[in-house]
Amino acid sequence: MSAETMSCAKALNAAMRVALTSDPATFLAGEDIAVYGGAFGVTEGLLADFGAERVRDTPISEDAIVGMAVGAAITGMRPLIEMQFADFVVNAMDPLVNQAAKLHFMYGGNVTVPLVLRLPGGGGTGAAQQHSQSLEAWFAHVPGLKVVAPSTPQDAHDLLLAAVNDPDPVVFVEHKLLYREEGPVTVRAALADVDGGLPGTAVRREGADLTIVAYSLTARKAEEAAEALAEDGIDATVLDLRSLRPLDLGPVIDAVTRTGRLLVAHEAPGPVGIGAEVVAGVVGSRAFDHLLSPPVRVTGGGTPMPYAPALERANIPQVEDIVAAARRLMAEDD
Amino acid sequence: MAELQVRMPALSATMEDALVLSWLVAPGDVVRSGQPLAEVSTDKVDMELESPYDGTVDRILVPEGERADLGAPLLVLTSDEEDLLGGLDLDGDAEEPAATPAPSPAAAPAPTAAPPAAPAAAPAATPAAIVTSPLVRRLARERGIDLHTVTGTGSRGQITRADLEAAAAGGSAPSAAATPPAAPSAASSAGSAGSSPGNASRRRAIRAATARTTVRSAQIPQFTLYRRIDAGRVNERREGRSWSTELARALAAALWRHPECNAVWDEAQETVVPLPGVRVGIAVDTPDGLVVVAVDDPDAVAPAQADAAVRAAVDRGRNGRIVPEDMQHVSTTISNLGGLGVDRFNALLVPPQPTILSVGRIVESPVVVDGHVRVRPMMEVGLTVDHRVADGADGARFLETFVQRLEG
Amino acid sequence: MARLDPKTPAGARDALRTMWTIRRFEEALEDLYSRGMLHGTNHLSIGQEAVAVGACGALEDGDLITSTHRGHGHSIAHGGDPMRMMAELLGRTDGYCRGRGGSMHIADVASGNLGANGIVAGSMTIAVGAALSMRMQGTDAVVVCFFGDGAANEGSFHEALNMAGVWDLPVLFLCENNQYGMSMAQDASTAGGSVAARGAAYGIEGVEVDGNDLDAVFTAVQAEVARIRAGGGPGLVEAITYRYRGHSKSDRNLYRTLDEIEEWRTERDPVDRFEAAAVDSGRLTVDEVDEVREEARAAIRDAVGRAVRSPEPDVSDLVDAAYAQVPEHGR
Q: Which residues pair with C216 in a beta bridge?
């Protein structure tokens, strides 16, 4: 099938359509996803085609929504859940962390918990503290959960289908500002077309001078930053992690072994974050002996997300922040 | 009527024994379950010991002021209740764990643990701190340059790569104490032969390197373990990939699982030093002699990618274009003489690598499967192990993981 | 057809044997604990046996249960193998969870026990999802969700009842009100006093029943399950019962008197009461009662004898065990 241009939101919508069409065990549930089409329109049109039983509006009960999904998942269904905003998952931490993540292990491998939890997160929309967070590191910290974060429409499409196929609970991190980003998408014909498991790190750009690692919206910013750096004659490799747990560090180690310099960027707060994990993994690998300078992180979240545009912008890594950090890194004598 | 013993219960998670402070009952007293029998004092708190049964106190076994171990009988009751578990053998002589052999405790519970980033050899104590990057340290180590003799010109006074290059080009002399890089097998000779071709000299260089390596190897206490492997599963799924790739991937998996077999002996420190990662060497038979090439952890990438890396490495060996990476931090080597009709053999270690795998030919052989004689493609391998680094049982467990991976 | 009808002689015998099996199982745990053979704490349901046995007896094959941290009785009443449960508590490979879960996490999904749960009210929303799942898959199965009086004050309780209510799901919420949430007396923790009465807020007619009367529990649950199976929407039963033992092993019973415990044990013990009722009504003879007790004792001795010989798990069992599928790059 040939690729067509569509937004991330449409690519996700198309993936849900594929899942609902090809597996009767799948269903969607969440707040305002059916009639309203989702707070960000991602589930638009699905109610009409699949009915209220499988495209299910829920009460505003995040705990029950995720707990219900766990119960359905361990009894043969494949629920695909939308948290209206990633921030609201805090009300569902027990079913997610104490139940979904644990049951397969806790019950001796006798159950699987194939649920997907979509978390629209990230700042830049002026929604301030309680509607702008990037909470992915919390979930990557929990054994039993998988965490993925696509940055392109094609990945959004494919990763969602791979997540639905996966027998484990998958936290699916979406950045709200990616929804309207467009790109070529080959819509899969069936769930079975993405049966290779959750994919790992993607190489977005190859360059010899430094390695920039990012994910989700920040991966797109990293690509832009690399283009700007190229004009200065700095040739960056850009890697998009895509999967945050498990973390596919092989390509990162390979790249740092070649370039000797590492910059990790993400919108989530730095302390105890994904960037820390990437840096630790690289420094603890054979790439250590190839390092030319200390690895650098560019992260957000110094404070809760501010409202005023200038403050909000300052709290989120921008393209120019990545460029500036890369230039400083290159200025270190090797 | 049964005689029931009341034992010292676990009153806290850490308690090993407790002190009987006072008895609240005496022989002849009728007690109900839940009724306090005694006050006892643990490492944490004073607590009442409750009777687990209804009955009559017959005798007290531990006087006030004495300690009793967790589980020790304290008092005997006569009771209408049954001694539920009386006479059962509870000594819990649990059967041996199932057939799967135990990996080392360090390896198993943390499958995602990154290996420690230990250098291949412990550096000697340094008189003064050297400021430089990990890369420059490595290059200096490889070239035998003592960084104390190099002046740093970097912004923080650090030794830059350019400083090192200048020193190597004639600046500071290499330290006499610096050890030459480990040069396994013929690789280094073969590498240098690339720039000055001529088969005779190349052959002579490889021969000399092999001679040096094998003499050093002969001084290492080593033993070989053999296993027969059913090659059928690998053949079914290898999809055109080379046998070397399949063997290398299985070895890499086993090395991650058994870090005790992915370490080298440090003679000076008399200690085992873990290797920083997994690299697998492959012995390549060339017209000029034996060379060894290496690939990065082939199990960390997709099978097709690993196969491409293995094929590229073997080509490199055949063409005499050995690169430094073929010699550094190599964990183990595969030596396959199956193609030449050999049934089995024991390969000599390539110092400092702690193991080497010899591979014999695949022979259709009768084997008993589920009680029936079947003809299966069988292959024999030998794992030679540096006994200073690991023991026979370590090697056996390593080999078991390797075999399970291939047969699984 | 209910699996076990205590109104018949055969059903009465099964029900009594199951109650004794639960009690003996937990007494054996106390004994093993006192010998230092149990690794963690455990929560005993001695005194509450009639709720588990009466409720599970009223179910049909294919019906599901979710359980609580005090779940040994639910597991046995739903058909769990005491040997595999004991092996789990001893941390052995033959345990239901291969020694990974322990007392609070026994599950036997294959036989419809979706699992005990260490989080108070943790299984209530799971039961809602299982009920939705059963309906979407076109079965007429009913899910019985056991929970304690303490759970009725968790948000999950309210979210679960509301969701089950608006979606008309086939789930029976079964409160085992044993009077205390750990040390907190139910009347001090629960505004309005009644758990059953809270159903009204969600369109559910709550039913209160004497949880120490096995016949009464069976009758109430059987009626509710039949109504739910016929599409009548979720149910809520509050069974009033009592636990004799402390909340867990660290309990010093500071919140209640020995007289109170004694009164429940001598006046209202569910096993004593059912034995008397079964003999009075001619369902069982005194000799049969003795036989049943001996059967339960022998079953537990056999379970313990075999469980202590089950192998200890190997740490290699933990490799990749948190996931059903680990991608190549995740190893």
A: none
